[in-house]
Amino acid sequence: MKTKLRGSDPERPSLEMLLRQLKLPSFAQSHEEAGTQAEKEGWTFRQYLHHLAEVEVEDRRRRRIERNLKHSPLPADKTLGTLDTKGLPRKVKTQLPGLCEGSFVERAENVLAFGLPGRGKSHTLAAIGHELIQRGYRVLYRPAFLIVQQLLVAKRELELDRALRRLDAFDVVVIDDIGYVQQSRDEMEVLFTFLSERYERRSVMITSNLVFSEWDKIFKDPMTTAAAIDRVVHHATILELTGSSYRTNEARKRNKDLNVDDDNAGKESNEK
């Protein structure tokens, strides 16, 4: 049975209203302009609909990326474009493209970045996080002390399960500077619980100044330390960031530039 069109029935909802009720805002915004283009270029009705569907899908993708970036919250200046890849060890350079592609997330594997302060650990993992968000993954970036504090408060309020479920909504959680966390037993326990909950289910990316042999400074208890390392290392990619400090090199470059400016100013003054 064919549906009878109601033409100019004043009680009939507008096309824009119907599209917005169907939650197709980009379709609603673009259909008139696309219709004009379709008439000029002789599109078929199927081509017209296909174009509008592409517009809607792309706009949803863009909004999802913006939303996920806002909720991350990844440092805006620590992207792949701003990462000094020339200063990275050769092995890390070869590992980086595959990690940015995100297949490790699908396998619920982890990424661990080790190195002394200023070697680019945080920037490298943040850059990977930005790339993952562009590919549709949900990423949370947090300093270790902040995650521990939030989980500890949740435990005291008997809300730890709910807090862990909220974190479980993220495909990847980046824990920055786990080596700086000097924990009490309660703090150590909530961190261990978090790592155990994500084991083989969700990915974590961790930066640390401490090698595994020093993780007893984090977890205190030898048995818990061994268990935590076992869960984190299993199915993990390890990035070893060596070399000189980025921050030291940047400071030297700034001082060099200042000295050059001072020399130029002195020459101009003497010429006068």
How would you describe what is shown here?
This protein has a five-stranded parallel beta sheet. It is extended. It is 58% helix and 10% strand. The chain folds into two domains: 15-70; 75-248, P-loop containing nucleotide triphosphate hydrolases (Rossmann fold, 3-Layer(aba) Sandwich). With 272 residues, it is an alpha/beta fold.
Defining key terms:
272 residues; alpha/beta; Rossmann fold; 2 domains; 5-stranded parallel sheet; 12 helices; 10% strand
Strand order of the largest sheet: 2-3-4-1-5
Average pLDDT score: 86
Q: Kindly provide the name of the CATH class of the largest domain.
A: Alpha Beta
Largest sheet geometry: 5 strands, parallel
State the shape.
Answer: extended
Question: Rounded to an integer, what's the Rg over CA atoms?
Answer: 26 Å
Percentage of residues in strands:
5-15%
Structural class: alpha/beta
User: Could you name the CATH topology of the largest domain?
Assistant: Rossmann fold
Helix content: 55-70%
Count of extended strands: 5
As for the number of domains, it is 2
In short:
The chain has twelve helices and five strands.
Topology at a glance:
Elements: H1 15-21, H2 25-41, H3 45-71, H4 90-101, H5 103-106, E1 110-114, H6 121-134, E2 139-143, H7 144-156, H8 160-168, E3 172-176, H9 185-198, E4 203-208, H10 216-219, H11 222-233, E5 236-240, H12 246-271
Parallel strand pairs: 1-4, 1-5, 2-3, 3-4
Helix pairs in contact: 1-2, 2-3, 4-6, 7-8, 7-9
